[in-house]
Amino acid sequence: MLARMKQMMIKEVIQVLRDKRTRFILIVPPIVQMLVFGYAATFEIRHVATVVVDYDHSQESRDLISRFTSSPYFAVQRQLDNSAELSNRIDEGQATVGLEINAGFAQALRKGQPAPLQVIVDATNSNSALIAAGYITQIAGGYAEDYQQERMARIAPQLAQVAPSIELEQRPWYNPNLSSRWFFIPGIIGSLTLVLVITLTAFGVVREREIGTLEQIMVTPIRPAEFILSKTLPFFAIGLFDVSLIAAVGSLWFQVPFRGHFSVLLLGSVLFLVCMLGVGLLISTVSSTQQQAMVTAFFFIMPAIVFSGFGFPISTMPKWLQYMTYASPLRYFLVVLRGTYLKGVGLDILWPQMAAMAGLGVGLLTIAILRFHKSID
Amino acid sequence: MSVRRLWVMARKEVVQILRDPRSLAIVIVMPAILVILFGYGVSLDLKGLPVYVYDQDGSQQSQDLLKRFQSSEYFHVARVVNNYRELTRALDDGSAKMGIVIPWNFSEKLAEGGPIQIQALVDATDDNSANVLMGYTQGVVQEYSAEVQAEFLRQRGIAMQTAPIGVETRTWYNENLESSAFIIPGVLALVMSVIGAFLTSLTIAREWERGTMEQLISTPVSASEILFGKLLPYFVLGMGDTIVSALIAIYWFKVPFRGSFLTLLASSAMFLVVVLAMGFFISVLAKGQFAASQIALLTTFLPAFLLSGFLFSIDQMPTVLQGITRIVPARYYVSVLKRIFLKGTPTAMLYGDLVPLAIFAVLLAVLATRSFHKRLA
User: Could you tell me how many CB contacts below 8 A there are between chain A and chain B?
Assistant: First the structure.
C-alpha cells in the first residue's frame, strides 16, 4: 500500500511542479496578494479632507478650528465664506467633512449654554463617516472640557485646585497603536490559504476526471482511499508551505508581532488545512469540468470569507447569519490566528476552536471520501 | 465581418452555456447571492459590544457612573466580575471587548476632590470596534466628570453650568449610515468581474486545452468573429445580471437610487467590455484552465475587491498604491456606481470616471483582438 501511495505522490508532485506557470502561481500571487492586501485593507482614517465655515469669527471658534487643524485625523483644507460653498465641496467630493460654526457660538459658551457645532459628513462610506463623526465628537468634547476648566479657574481659583475630575485611562490591549494592519493581516493569511488550497485540490482532481486520466488511474491496483490520500497529501504540504510563506511576509515585512506558541499555530493550520482539503475534494466530486469546479469553489469561498469575521465583526450580522458562520472553518482559524499572533494565548483558550475545526475536518473528509467512491463507481 | 457567421458563433456558445446547467444557474443566481451576502454579512454597525465591569468601590457613585454605560446602545454590560484575573481571561478568550475598572477609593476621592483615574481595558485586536468603544467611553466619562465638577461648585455656592458643545451631525447621501447602502452598489462591479473574467477565461481556455479552438479556426469564421461571437452571450448575461443586482439593491435592501438608470446601463456596458476583454486576453496568454482562473482572480476580481474603493477608501491607502488604483478599471466603475446610487450626481459631472472607463474598454478590446490574431499566426 505504501509503495503504491509513494508512486502516486511522486506523480502528483511532478505534475504540480513540472509546469513553470503552476510553480509561479504557488509562490508569487500569494505574496503579491499579501502585500496589496496588507497595504490596502484599512478602516483607519487619517487626514480626512475637511472644509470649515466660521460665521462667528471669535477667539473660541478659532480655537476650536485649530484643534481640528492639529489633529492627525482631519486635514483642514481651507476656510470657506458660506454654507453654499461648503455644500458644493462635499457634493463634488473634494471634501468629506464640513464644519460650520454659527454666529453666537462664543456667546453661548460664555453663558454656559450648549453651543451648536454643525457637522456635515459625506456618508457614502458609512464606516469612515461613523469613525470621523466619533473623532469630531471627541475633539469638541475635549475642547468643551478644557473651556470649562479654564472658566472654573477664573471664577473660583481656589476651588479649581481641589475640584474632583475623573480621568479615563484607556489601555488598548493586544494592538496598542490601534493598527488596522495588525487586525487584517492574520485574517489575510487564513483567507489566502483557503482560496489556494481549495482551488488547487478541486482542480487537481477534476482535471484528471476531465482529461480522462482518472479512469486510467482507477484501473491500476490503487484503492480509492489510497488515491485520495496520496492525491491530497502533496496539496497539504503545499498548503503548509504557503501558510509559512505568507506568515513570513506578515511578520517580516509588516512587522505584525507573534506572541503565542508556534506549535499552537501549527496545530491550528494543520486542522484548518484538513478542512480545506475536505472542501476541495467535495467540490471535485460534484464537478465534472474545471469550469464547474471553479464556480462551485467560488461559491464556497465567498461566503466562507465573508462569514468568518475577516473584516466585519460577526456580532453585527443578523442572527440567522451568525448561526451560519459556525459552519465556516475559517471562522475558527481566524480566532486561532489572531489569538496566537496578537493575544499570545494558548490551547487553554483556543481548544474550542481546535475542536470545532477537527470535527468539521473529519466530517468534511468523510463525506468527501464517501461521495468520491460513488462518483467513480 | 459577416453577421451570419457571428450569429452562428454566438449560438454555438449559447448552446454550450445551456448544456452546462450548473454554470448557467450560477450565473443567474450569483448576483443575488453576492448582493445578499454583502448586504447582510458586511456590516460595521457596532451594537451591543460585551463589556465587563470590575467595580472595586461598589458605592452609590460608582454604580451611578456604570449605569450611564448601560444606557448606551454600543455597550452591553455582560458581567460584573470581582478580580482582574477574570477580566483578563474574558478579554483573552473574546467574551468581553472591554473591561471597566473603577478604583476602590472612587467615592472617597470624589468627596475629597482632585483627579481620579478609572481604567478601560480594551481588546484592540479589531481596531475599528476598539476605536468606537474608546471614543464613546471617553464621552461618557467626560460628561460625568463635568457634572461632578458643577455639583462640587454648586455645593460651595458657585453656580456654573456645564457648557457642552452640541455637535449636530448630518450624514449626507447615506442618512442612516447604513452599511448596506455603502457596500451594495460596489458589489455590481464584483459580480461583473466574476462573470467576465472567470467564465470567459475558462470557456476559452477550455477550447484551447481541448484543441477545439484549432477546429474553429480551420472553419471560414474569422478571428474577430470568433472573439465577438464568443463574448456576445456573456455580454448579454452580464447586462442581465447588472439589472438583477440593481433591482435587488433598490427593492430588497432599499438602497437609494438617485441618478440616471441609463447612465448605470451605459457605464455597466463599458465595464463589462473591459472585463470580457480581460478574460479573453488572459485565456490567450495562459495555457490551461487552472492558470487562467488564477490569473483572472489576481488581475480582475482582487483589484475590484481591494483597489476599487468598494470597501476600503482609496484616499487612505499609501501613495504608491493610490497611483496603482488609477490603472484599475473597477475604480472608475465603482466611483460611478456610488455616485449614481447615493449622490445622484448628474451624468455631466461623471466624465472624470466615464472617460477613463471608455478608454480602458477600447484599449482592452484592441489588445484582446491583437493578441488573439498573434496567437493564431
Answer: 363
Shared domain for A202 and A91, answered yes or no, is no
The pLDDT value given to residue B94: 85
Q: Do A143 and B165 touch (CB under 8 A)?
A: yes
Whether A189 and A304 map to the same domain: the answer is yes
Q: Chain B, 264-293: which have a CB under 8 Å from a chain A CB? A: 286-291, 293
Give the CATH number of the domain where residue B69 resides. 3.40.1710.10
Between strands B75-80 and B49-55, the pairing is parallel
> CA of A1 to nearest chain B CA: how many angstroms apart?
30
Per-residue confidence (pLDDT) for residue A357, from 0 to 100: 95
B157 touches chain A (CB under 8 A): no
Range of the domain at B315: 3-42+178-376
Instruction: Please indicate, yes or no, whether residues B37 and B86 belong to a single structural domain of this protein.
Output: no
Q: Report the pLDDT value the prediction gives residue A200, as an integer from 0 to 100.
A: 85
Mutate to test the interface with A, among B34, B174, B294, B307 (most CBs of A within 10 A): B294
Residues 6+ apart with CB under 8 A from A71: A135, A139
Say if residue A97 is in the same domain as residue A126: yes
| Number of separate domains in chain B | 2
Instruction: Please give the model's pTM, rounded to 2 decimal places.
Output: 0.85
Task: Please report the beta strands in chain A, taking only residues with DSSP state E, as ranges in sequence order.
Answer: 48-54, 74-80, 97-101, 115-122, 165-173
CB B198 within 8 A of CB A298: yes
Residue A139 in any domain: the answer is yes
Which residues 322-351 of B have a C-beta within 8 angstroms of A? Answer: 338-339, 342-343, 345, 349
- Domain shared by A257 and A130, yes or no: no
Domain that holds residue A105: 48-162
Q: Is A119 on the interface with B (CB under 8 A)?
A: yes
- Tell me, yes or no, whether B163 lies in a domain: no
Q: Is residue A306 part of a domain?
A: yes
Q: What pLDDT, on the 0 to 100 scale, is given for residue B163? A: 64
Return the pLDDT at A265.
93
Same-domain status, B265 and B349? yes
Query: With the C-alpha atoms ordered A220, A226, A229, A234, is the resulting torsion angle positive or negative?
Result: negative
Closest CA to B326 of B367, B356, B302: B356
| CATH code, domain with A81 | 3.40.1710.10
Q: A171 in a domain, yes or no?
A: no
Question: Over the stretch B48-73, which tens digit does the pLDDT of each residue have?
Answer: 788 999 999 888 888 888 888 887 77
Given a cut of 50, the residues of chain B with pLDDT beneath it are none
* DSSP letters spanning B108-134: HHHHH-SEEEEEEEEE-SSHHHHHHHH
> Is there a contact between A123 and B182 if contact means CB atoms under 8 Å apart?
yes
Determine the Cα–Cα distance for residues B95 and B78; give it in Å rounded to an integer.
9
Which ranges of chain A have pLDDT less than 70?
375-377
Cell of A246: 505568507
Q: Does B105 touch chain A (CB under 8 A)?
A: no
Question: Which of A107, A129, A162 lies at the terminal end of a domain, its last residue?
Answer: A162
My answer on whether B332 and B186 are in the same domain is yes
Asked if the Cβ–Cβ distance from A169 to B120 is below 8 Å, we say yes
- Domain contains B222: yes
* Record: contact A36-B298, CB cut-off 8 A: no
Q: CA B348 to CA B351: how far, in whole Å?
A: 6
pLDDT, residue B101, reads: 92
Look at residues B372, B294, B307 and name the one whose alpha carbon lies nearest to residue B333: B307
Closest by Cβ to A164, choosing from B37, B121, B148:
B148
pLDDT at B25: 77
Q: What is the DSSP letter of A113?
A: P
Q: What is the pLDDT of residue A263?
A: 93
- State the Cα torsion A317-A318-A322-A325 to the nearest 10°: -70
User: What residues are paired with A54 via a beta bridge?
Assistant: A101
Closest residue by Cα to residue B201 from B297, B288, B283: B283
For residue A377, what pLDDT is reported? 58
